[in-house]
Design brief:
17 helices; 457 residues; 1% strand; 2 domains; mainly alpha
Length: 457
Amino acid sequence: MDLLGLRRDTDSWLVNMERSHRPDRNGAHGTGRPTGVFMLQPEHVTSVLAAFSEKVHTWYPIFSSTEFTESFYKSINGLDGSGTHTCLAMLVMAIGSLVRRAPPLTTGLDERPDTQYFDRAISLLPDIMADYSLVGLQCQILFSLYYLCLVRPCQAHDYILMASSRAQNMLKSRLYSSDTHHLEALYRASWAIILIESELAVQLNFADSGIWKYDDHLPLPTADETWHFGSPATAPSPDPSQQSPQSSQTDKSDSAEVLSYFMAEIAMRRMLRRCTTSVSDWAGGRPQYAPIIADELELQLDQWYKYLPPSLHFHRQPTSAADVPELPTAQFLQAQYAACKASIYWPAVCQAIDLGCGDESQLQYCSKFFDAYVSFLVAAEASLSTCIPNTWTLYASIFIITLASLKGTKCSCLATIVNPKTFECFRRARSVFVEIREFSLSLSAMSEILEDRIEAS
């Protein structure tokens, strides 16, 4: 943090600020009201389930195509008295209701249509803690995703830590070693946990659950197990006998696309972790500039892009909204790609700032850093409206990378190589915080810091 001109304890300060947030009148932590019985219209349930599938489950596909929809409808219709399955259904309804009218996400955050479902779900938390099952594990992940959609990173991290502990115990005990179907579901849940925890931990000073040690041992998900519900108009019937061959084929195609993104995101997260580890060879508190390492990381990142399926391809150096893909998952990967590039080149900028000069080779990397910042801001700005579960982490990344770029532009030896669009991106970075800051104390603080720094530059 001190590299960016911030206090070293800024990340802890932001965490403590988030922790100080109290439940609001809309019941972000449960209202305590009687939960009662829900009278739900089938059209409403279908719409909410489709919103959950498209806007949340697409990013973290933890459910199986062979059983989730049927189990969900049984719980909603009161045909399954299990507290764990009821909690799962209520969490899906809460999350789906919250994101259904997004973008913008602020609509749901302001109206809070999720509270009645979440009140019911949170009342069943003791059942979840006592139920050592995959459904219980999935509920813990959904609690985390719910708080991610509420832009509450600390609470999201609390639940993902619980989920991580349970998943690791299940993996260690080889609970499902003879059950291929349940074992696949456990692997899928474990990967989702790794991705969620990684997204949060890279931004704030959070505890590490240790689940990364399973990275090399976890098989990747398989295509025939991915659940996808589709839009209300094309969603499959909960009764498999009523599905047409065409709808079944569409569902398989959508499931394959969801899996393709999941696999690409797992590979990207491994790449980002490798990048962070490689450039964190600190020398006197500063990242060490090493051209050989930068070249190798750049090559690996380009290899990652080379193996993406065509549907996830994107412009590798976007400079305007016209260069951003329409597919939300491709947008987010584009933002991550640019962020990874920026982190690869950042040590060169740090050394130039420290020494007040740099050779031709180093200045080329510095120039690439500013190009990567412009690309990141363009992609991240678009992704903010489509990648709802990662809303907070996207804002935090915009905050950090913008501060780093601001720091670089103040170095006289870099003045002639700064991408001209960098300064326009500073203004855009400040403006994206306007609507969201009232819903998050930490993002409000980031917004104020960013405004002060940009105005002073």
